[in-house]
Design brief:
Chain C: Its main location: membrane. By secondary structure, chain C is mostly helical. Chain C has 14 helices and no strands. Chain D is α+β, with helices and mostly antiparallel strands. Classes of the chains: A mainly alpha (about 100), B mainly alpha (about 170), C mainly alpha (about 375), D alpha+beta (about 170). The interface between A and B is large, with 74 and 85 residues.
Chain lengths: ~100, ~170, ~375, ~170
């Protein structure tokens, strides 16, 4: 089952670009967070693809992916808490409507 | 190239295609809940990719942590912030066509760089199972392991403090 | 002789393969062998579910001093068939305001994890559909996604009651997932590998894990959290008929409701199958053939779940949450500590030490959670 | 102790379950079409008219008290007349609409001539709702023996009352 590595890299870069498109073009804060999750996942797939052909310590890629998943969970938690707080105060989570520096 | 290699590679490319479609849908669909569900499909697709790349433990962790935990967070956020579903409001910026310019640029540079460099495709190592991962976590990476648990604790308390209603 | 009965299903599959092998090319044979296993699982799941419903109705009937269903068939044996036909022919109503995509997606995605999970359970000696090196982890990963699908079903039906049921389901399953995972870790600690076959092999003969002190606590913990994870009786708030009609599957009728119903019973079967695999020694047993041992233990556990259903009223949400976070979680952590000690110490000392740690901790948790009656308040001025 | 209630509950249900296989009387269900529970003396379903000798000589004198008293007004009586048009003391038509009747038994209490009583027949299903449930006089008529068979005490009391009145 030999997959040439540049096919995987092209796939992950397309996935990354899709996430980037979502992050840039969406108005809804939660939508942006969802797109960031896609970008994070694209990077994780890269790690795993490379970790297979590492001679010295093959498991380092996978460990890094585990840390990445855990940190994505932490960012998602804090990010969504902030979004909830904005929603509670501003009654809207559309990023272009949140322009007051203080509320 | 036995039949199974052929089946496996076609399944791999099919999974890749499926993930791209699900991700594209997730980013473009108007109803936020549908985009959360499509995100779940992309995550499960990526877990399938990990199975193909012999990273079984990471695939199980991905499903357990991402689809089990983070998706629940996102779905709760979607539920709490949307006024019971009124997708009438436009979900994306008016001049979203402009976004394609930087995207195209970045994409062109990235993909051309990928295709030009000669990746030395060495024979993939033996599969890394949970035992070697555990050993590495406990010996070589024990410091980052502790720091990450600290970060999680901080994120936990931070999220509760921010989201707590007075 | 006993070994032939024990391996009867493997031999049957081999016979089928031998019959077909002269006619088909070699690679087709491998596909056929995989296909046979998949077909048996997909047939075995719904059939077990149908006869579990009948067993449950008769069992609970007898508890309430009445017969269970005994009209269709001799002892009501055709009752599941008639239920099935009724479910097929019932009209499938989709509410007009419902979100068609999520409403349609609900039942499909709820049934997939409950079927996928069967692939990891060892039904008998080398009778495991697919021996993954991350067996148990695969089970939990797939089982934990069902939270999300239950919520899609609840959110898709756009109805206050199902949304309430969905939120209750998510809150309950998330808070019971952590004790469930932690109650498994001692067994993995002792065995040292995730694969279910290794766990069962580690419990050779009668050295089932349940007979060790940490094993008993782990068994009780895992069984209780399993019952909660499957939304069965004392913890069935997500579909609390009395207060929120039918919880997340209120707006489903006909075959879609049958899928939810089937998923619930198959989850109940697979959770009790996993409890037997990890703590009751899977198919290990003295004389009888291995798969008979496995099904006997699983059905004992399922009848205990039904016994719970016949006895306990539904728990309030705060009791439910309190039980998980204040009761099961600390016990799971201490059980992990006791198991670690048990592994590292020699025979006489480890049982005694882990036994006292666990009894002391159970009593402490019990005392800590007891409701303290408020002190009698004396109103100084009222009495003058 | 906190956990005892749980164990007691479990003990009760498992006791019920095991003993239900040994002592038949614990099981309260009656297999309806095959076995039947014996109806009590005062079971009442739909009213019937009682006659002494022959079905056309009913005890009823068409006084229409029951028709007036009936809450859902499901009794309709037309007094019989002889050729000269003089009203007679018996009903020409006496219809009770069983689909409207609510089995209250008020007609039985108010009837001064002990002619209308509550029967205990409840298996009265029919294919057609309007016609078949409109019971006419001859379908309502039931003999006094039938009445005394289904309700022995009240029949005895009624007999003594009637004999006392005749003397």
């Amino acid at each position: 089952m030999h997959i040439p590595i540049d096919h995987i890299l092209v796939f992950t870069s397309i996935l990354f670009l899709i996430g980037l498109y979502g992050a840039l073009s969406r108005r809804n804060a939660v939508g942006i967070l969802i797109s960031i999750e896609i970008m994070l996942n694209a990077v994780n797939v890269n790690f795993i693809a490379f970790s297979r052909s590492f001679a010295s310590s093959p498991e380092s890629g996978q460990i890094f992916v585990m840390f990445a998943i855990v940190l994505a969970a932490a960012t998602a938690a804090v990010g969504l808490a902030i979004v909830l707080n904005i929603y509670r105060n501003q009654k809207t989570i559309y990023t272009d409507e949140i322009h007051l520096l203080k509320w | 190239m036995t039949l199974f290699q052929f089946l496996a590679t076609t399944a791999f490319y099919a999974a890749m295609l499926g993930i791209l479609i699900a991700a594209a849908l997730c980013v473009t669909v108007r109803n936020l809940f549908h985009s959360a569900v499509f995100l779940a499909f992309t995550l499960i697709g990526i877990a399938m990719l990990y199975f193909f790349l012999q990273a079984e433990f990471i695939a199980a962790m991905q499903i357990l942590l991402y689809v089990g935990a983070i998706m629940t967070l996102i779905v709760f956020a979607v539920m709490l912030t949307s006024r019971m579903g009124n997708p009438a409001v436009p979900q994306s910026f008016k001049n979203k066509k402009i976004v394609f310019l930087p995207l195209g640029l970045v994409g062109f540079i990235l993909i051309s760089a990928i295709l030009k460099t000669p990746w030395e495709t060495s024979e993939p190592q033996t599969a890394v199972n949970a035992v070697t991962l555990g050993k590495a976590l406990m010996n070589q990476y024990v410091f980052p392991f502790e720091v990450v648990s600290l970060v999680l604790l901080v994120a936990l308390i931070g999220a509760i403090v921010i989201a707590r209603s007075e | 002789m006993l070994n032939t009965i024990d391996q009867i299903f493997i031999k049957a599959k081999q016979i089928i393969l031998d019959i077909l092998s002269p006619f088909l090319p070699e690679w087709m044979m491998i596909l056929i062998s995989i296909f046979i296993v998949i077909v048996t699982l997909c047939v075995f799941g719904p059939v077990v579910m149908m006869y579990l419903t009948l067993l449950e109705r008769k069992f609970i009937g007898r508890m309430q001093n009445r017969y269970g269903p005994n009209r269709c068939g001799i002892f009501g044996l055709l009752q599941p068939l008639s239920d099935g036909i009724k479910m097929f022919t019932k009209e499938d109503i989709v509410p007009q305001k419902a979100d068609p995509f999520a409403h349609f997606l609900g039942p499909i995605t709820v049934i997939i994890p409950s079927l996928l999970v069967f692939s990891v359970i060892p039904f008998g000696r080398n009778m495991i559909p697919s021996d993954l090196s991350i067996g148990i982890l695969f089970f939990f990963a797939v089982a934990s996604t069902s939270t999300l699908w239950i919520f899609t079903a609840a959110w898709g039906s756009r109805n206050k009651f199902s949304l309430l049921g969905g939120m209750r389901a998510v809150a309950q399953m998330v808070s019971y997932e952590i004790p469930m995972l932690l109650s498994i870790v001692p067994a993995l600690l002792v065995v040292g590998s995730f694969s279910t076959v290794a766990i069962v092999n580690a419990q050779e003969g009668l050295q089932w894990f349940v007979f060790t002190p940490w094993g008993l606590v782990g068994f009780i913990l895992f069984f209780l959290t399993g019952v909660a994870e499957v939304n069965r009786c004392p913890f069935d708030l997500p579909e609390g008929e009395s207060e929120i009609i039918a919880g997340f599957h209120t707006e489903y009728s006909g075959m879609k409701f049958a899928l939810f119903y089937m998923a619930e019973y198959m989850n109940a079967f697979s959770v009790s199958a996993l409890v037997t695999t990890v703590y009751l020694g899977g198919w290990q047993g003295p004389i009888l053939p291995s798969w008979l041992w496995f099904f006997a233990k699983t059905f004992v556990l399922i009848s205990i779940m039904m016994w719970f259903r016949g006895t306990f009223p539904r728990m309030r949400v705060d009791q439910l949450m309190g039980f998980a976070w204040r009761g099961l979680l600390p016990l799971a952590f201490i059980n992990l500590l006791a198991a670690a000690l048990w592994v590292h110490l020699s025979f006489p000392l480890n049982d005694i030490l882990s036994f006292c740690i666990l009894t002391v901790s159970v009593l402490m948790i019990y005392v800590a959670n007891r409701k303290v009656a408020p002190k009698k308040r004396i109103y100084k001025y009222a009495y003058e | 102790m906190y956990g005892l209630g749980v164990l007691k509950g479990l003990w009760v249900t498992i006791k019920n379950f095991t003993l239900s296989y040994f002592t038949r009387k614990r099981l309260t269900t009656v297999q309806y079409p095959e076995e039947r529970i014996t109806l009590s003396e005062h079971a009442r379903t739909f009213p019937i008219l009682v006659y002494d000798e022959s079905p056309d000589k009913l005890r009823c004198v068409a006084c229409e008290i029951c028709a007036k008293e009936c809450p859902p007004k499901c009794i309709s009586i037309v007094r019989a007349q002889d050729e000269a048009g003089k009203p007679l003391k018996q009903p020409k038509f006496f219809d009770i609409d069983y689909s409207v009747c609510m089995n209250c038994g008020i007609c039985e209490e108010v009837c001064p001539f002990d002619s209308i009583y509550m029967d205990r027949q409840f298996e009265l299903s029919a294919y057609e709702r309007s016609e078949e449930f409109l019971y006419t006089k001859d379908r309502l008529a039931k003999s006094a023996e039938y009445f005394s068979k289904i309700r022995p005490e009240t029949a005895k009391k009624v007999e003594e009352k009637r004999k006392a009145k005749e003397k």
